[in-house]
Specification:
- The protein is an alpha/beta fold.
- The chain has a single domain, classed as P-loop containing nucleotide triphosphate hydrolases (Rossmann fold), CATH 3.40.50.
- It has helices spanning 14-25, 32-41, 45-55, 62-74, 91-103, 118-132, 139-153, 156-162, 175-189; strands at 2-7, 28-31, 81-85, 110-115, 166-170.
- Helix 1 packs across helix 9 (175-189) and helix 4 runs parallel beside helix 5.
- The mean pLDDT is 97.
- It binds adenosine-5'-diphosphate.
- Adenosine-5'-diphosphate is lined by residues 10-11, 14, 32-33, 36, 53-54, 57-60, 65, 86-87, 89, 93, 136, 145.
């Protein structure tokens, strides 16, 4: 199985690229953000629990994540692997993921980061706020999400570099250009 993590700050294009990658390589796309938003829309117990956290741009507690992830993975039996989008976001999540995958005789295959600087991210997210009206796309919450990313998620780069599983591509350019660059790296590793 190809267990692929698409990594990068909020607004780096992970969602857009993940869908294309999943389709091309017959992988299941698992977006923890999408799962949370669906639960919030449907007012499930989980949705009610996480709504205010997400609207502030904070992270959902680690202990909730791994079960959500496993449930999502169990829904796909016929795929050749996964694209993880928005997970892991903390060192604890990355360690929990390794344990969970090991139980399945699997491991993380590759972590690929989309590199985009803060100015571009803020501009993209503010534009998305106009188009989609996501509650966590206001200026203050965007700043918080970027801080949370820098403090809690970015350190994972070293975690995966130490395991020789880390690569990156420029996340600025056209969707197709970036996608082609991602595919080049995937094909060296798949
Ligand atoms: P973005 O990448 O634009 O921040 P996502 O859709 O990936 O958006 O995530 C939206 C929000 O959902 C995050 O700000 C966070 O509150 C929550 N979330 C998503 N994935 C995780 C995760 N792995 N751990 C904790 N919280 C998460």
């Amino acid at each position: 199985m190809f267990n692929f993590i698409l990594f990068g700050p909020p607004g780096s294009g992970k969602g857009t690229q993940s869908v294309k990658i999943a389709e091309k390589y017959n992988l299941a796309h698992i977006s923890t953000g999408d799962i949370f938003r669906k639960n919030i829309r449907e007012k499930t117990e989980l949705g009610i629990k996480v709504q205010s956290i997400i609207e502030k741009g904070e992270l959902v507690p680690d202990e909730l994540l791994i079960e959500i992830l496993e449930n999502a993975m169990d829904q796909y039996k016929e795929k050749k692997g996964f694209v993880f989008d928005g997970f892991p976001r903390t060192k604890q999540q990355a360690e929990d993921m390794d344990v969970m995958l090991e139980k399945r005789n699997e491991s993380v295959s590759l972590v690929l980061a989309l590199e985009v600087n803060d100015d571009v991210i803020i501009a993209r997210l503010l534009k998305r706020a106009e188009l989609e009206g996501r509650k966590d796309d206001t200026k203050d919450v965007i700043e918080n999400r970027i801080n949370v990313y820098n403090n809690q998620t970015q350190p994972l780069i070293d975690f995966y570099k130490d395991k020789n599983k880390f690569a990156s591509v420029n996340g600025i350019g056209s969707i197709d250009e970036i996608f082609n660059n991602i595919c080049t790296v995937i094909e060296q590793n798949i």
